[in-house]
Amino acid sequence: MPPKIHLYMTPGSVALASHITLAESGLPFSTTNLGAQRGFPAKHLPLNPKGRVPILDLDGNRITESPAIITTISLLVPEKKLLGTTVLEQARAHEWMVWLCATLHAQAFGGVFRPSRFVGAEEAVYDVVKAKARETVRECFEYIEGKLEGQTHAVGHVFTAVDVYLLVFYRWGNMLRFGMREHFPNYTRLVEEVVSRDAVKKTLEAEGLTPLND
Ligand SMILES: N[C@@H](CCC(=O)N[C@@H](CS)C(=O)NCC(=O)O)C(=O)O
């Protein structure tokens, strides 16, 4: 019997990576939108005391943190090789995911979207924090662009869930007007291929999103 899987998410958030990975897995699952666009609703804190989406419920066990959720889904369908085939590819996939989660998401985008997490109520310096964070986002995009030079995908030469995780931040880059297509052609080529996949199209449609948010 397949596991009972439920994903708590919010459209367009980082939960999109877990949502698409579930769709790619072919496993049956259901979703609930927790409405965390402008902050995690306090009434849902019992689901995740850290106050974040995504949350994966697997047979009654709740799993948080995108890299852990994506790894869990990948382990449920080993034949799909959602995080690569060889030991080295899987190591690279985790290397990417940890960096995307801790540096690009939490540090860089965190500073742009939530400067209060860095300087508390010091509103007078929010713009300074945001400007520095935007610079860090750009540096991260440049790093990604360089890593994708001569590479069809983030890991090896085939699709992995890392490509989907990268799609989330490309869409945010367009939202923040980073000129993604103009400045990051390798990154653009990758995400254009990602959004042509059936599972990705289906998930974007289910979340009510345009593919690249441009
Ligand atoms: N480290 C977590 C971070 C998740 C996260 O920051 N989610 C955001 C949406 S993109 C959220 O729930 N924000 C609610 C809030 O900041 O109050 C992960 O990678 O899953």
Automatic annotation (TrEMBL):
<dbReference type="Pfam" id="PF13409">
    <property type="entry name" value="GST_N_2"/>
</dbReference>
<dbReference type="InterPro" id="IPR040079">
    <property type="entry name" value="Glutathione_S-Trfase"/>
</dbReference>
<protein>
    <submittedName>
        <fullName>Glutathione S-transferase</fullName>
    </submittedName>
</protein>
<keyword id="KW-0808">Transferase</keyword>
<dbReference type="InterPro" id="IPR004045">
    <property type="entry name" value="Glutathione_S-Trfase_N"/>
</dbReference>
<dbReference type="Pfam" id="PF00043">
    <property type="entry name" value="GST_C"/>
</dbReference>
<dbReference type="GO" id="GO:0016740">
    <property type="term" value="F:transferase activity"/>
</dbReference>
<comment type="similarity">
    <text>Belongs to the GST superfamily.</text>
</comment>
<feature type="domain" description="GST C-terminal">
    <location>
        <begin position="86"/>
        <end position="212"/>
    </location>
</feature>
<dbReference type="InterPro" id="IPR010987">
    <property type="entry name" value="Glutathione-S-Trfase_C-like"/>
</dbReference>
<feature type="domain" description="GST N-terminal">
    <location>
        <begin position="2"/>
        <end position="81"/>
    </location>
</feature>
<dbReference type="InterPro" id="IPR036249">
    <property type="entry name" value="Thioredoxin-like_sf"/>
</dbReference>
<dbReference type="InterPro" id="IPR036282">
    <property type="entry name" value="Glutathione-S-Trfase_C_sf"/>
</dbReference>
<dbReference type="InterPro" id="IPR004046">
    <property type="entry name" value="GST_C"/>
</dbReference>
